[in-house]
Amino acid sequence: MQLVRPAGTRYEGLALVAATLAVVGALFLYVLAQGSEGFKEPIYDWQVSAFETLTGADQAIYNSLYTVKDEIPYIYDDINMFNEPGVKFRWPNLDDFQDWLLPPFYKDTSYEQQGSLTWTLFEPLAEGEMQGSTMYLGTDGKLPGQGSFLLVIGHVHAGFTNTNAIVIWWNAKNHEEMPQSGFRDGLILQGWREVVPYSGAQEVKRIFGNNAPPAVPALPDGIGTEPAPASDRESQSQSEGEDIESVIEGALEK
Amino acid sequence: MRFSTRTFLFAVVAVVAGAAALLGSGAHAAEAKRLKVGITLHPYYSFVAHIVGDRADVVPLIDADANPHGYAPQPKDMIRMMSMDVLVVNGIGHDTWAFEILDAAGMRDKLHLIYANDGVSLIPIAGDPSGEKVVNPHTFISTTAAIQQVYTIARKLGELDTANATYFRDNARRYALEIRRLRAEFDAQIAGADLTKFRCATMHSGYDYILQELGLQVTAVIEPRHGVEPTARQLADTIDRIKAANVNVLFAEKYFASKLSDTIKDATGVKMYSISHISAGEYTPDKFVEEMRENLKTLATAIIESSKGA
Lengths: 254, 310
Fold this sequence. Notes:
The complex is a heterodimer.
Chain A: H1 10-34, E1 47-49, H2 56-80, H3 94-99, H4 109-113, E2 118-122, H5 124-127, E3 133-139, E4 148-154, E5 166-171, H6 184-189, E6 193-196, H7 200-208, H8 230-239, H9 244-253
Chain B: H1 5-32, E1 35-39, H2 42-52, E2 56-60, H3 75-82, E3 86-89, H4 96-104, E4 112-115, H5 144-160, H6 165-189, E5 200-202, H7 208-213, E6 218-221, H8 232-244, E7 249-253, H9 259-268, E8 271-275, H10 287-308
Parallel strand pairs in B: 1-2, 1-3, 3-4, 5-6, 5-7, 7-8
Helix pairs in contact in B: 2-5, 2-6, 5-6, 6-10
């Protein structure tokens, strides 16, 4: 009679563990390659997230201001385009915003629904003081728990140290006075927080990770090289390469 | 060497014909240099058409009658894509199929993409009972977020076609004002209405941006996620919330009707209104403004009728 012993499970167990580890490791690497669900830009103590923290009317006001950032340089061009020599260039005031139907300044029903903030413009160029920052203060909203907003156009040329030319700030206090300075450190000490958006660009990063289809600058030869009509070229020369900083610097030089 | 008169005439004709051919091909080449701008969704057709005017061609990636929700890419989409110089995408969840087409057509490293939402400050889906903050991709059913996208697209197209950059920017500004005038029209329509009685729920999260921009709160959203019907328990909870909050208006989708909205209407007594998702029908330059005008008119009607209620 021959005794047949069952084969040991030692090696099978090891093989099973190794296979499991390999599968888990591969899945981990796959998730890393596809992008992280938890992708978020860091929010510093002196910042506040429009997406995570602001709600309701304050979130809507911020989002309107965020688009206003793009419009202000355009309106600046419009209102100063036909200035006579020697006339001081100015930034858009609250009446200009009414003409352009520009929320959150434009006084319509949504303005009332969003708390009817009282907006004030402080323009240092007109006043001949301050250190290079034009500011729009929105305060005294009528909704419960509503904060105040400050849109600061920082003039780098005049020694403004913030690298962001136009910055939107939020203060949890319902009532705020116009700050003495648009400089970041001073505003932070007064309780202001820079509002940062959760932008579409960040969401694309979250969805695709490092695998996002890139924007490819190279186009077939010739595209975009045809001269535009003369009327366009004339106005283009005024605004070519125009970004907010050059507008700001141009204004200060004038 | 002697040239006969006939030879001379042949030479002249050949030179003239050659010059004409060169001029002709030059003109053709100039025409061929127009950008072909692809788009994935109906609103982007309108945005781009207004920005580029007559100086570029706008090419939809998918057929006009295709439903962009859960769209299955077709071979002809790849052919269309291969003819494009640049493609404008939503990129944040409403046209994921465009990226499948991009890879299938081998265009990932060849086609320039414009992510229209790059510069948009996104908001979470409203009324989510879980409290989880999930990104709402419906940035195009809006005014302010739409304008932000128009500016982004105009700026990016101007970087690609520098000769027309100013033309694109000026057109974008004009179009932005046209979009903003829609809100002024809406405001005139609701003049004198009592907005405190307006309480709304929506079938899905598509209308959050425009409602927030107008200062209107959403109390409840029926679909837990876009295109996902609620479970029986979720539906019962939502109906309870609608009743508890005295919701009197339900906004449902105009093009993609659901029997669920009738169920909720019957269970709660809310009055139902249809809002366009701007995702169906022919691609036309004026589609966005026309459908947003209609949406705002519907919103105004809902506000006025709810203000008359008890």
